[in-house]
Amino acid sequence: MDPVSKAYVTFLAGNKDYVKGVVGLAKGLRTAKSQYPLVVAVLPDVPQDHRDILESQGCIVQEIEPVYPSENHQT
Q1: DSSP state of 61
Q2: Which residues in the chain belong to E strands, given as ranges?
Q3: Nearest by Cα to 29 from 21, 20, 38
Q4: d(Cα 27, Cα 33) in Å, to the nearest integer?
Q5: Quick count: other Cβ atoms within 10 Å of Cβ 2?
Q6: Number of structural domains in the chain
């Protein structure tokens, strides 16, 4: 895969139905004939079947690591 300098990026976590929204976004971008790919940043808890669905829709799935606040973080 060639690196691209521009892309649409969205985020997905967990195993809920939010994957359907990302599929809708991917379809909308295709309908609009977007020239940029859709990159989906996923946390490790996104199931493989959801990742497979996204890839079948032409998404680039990239796993990312969660970032947690430091122990001395005050809310």
Answers
A1: E
A2: 8-12, 38-42, 60-63
A3: 38
A4: 10
A5: 3
A6: 1
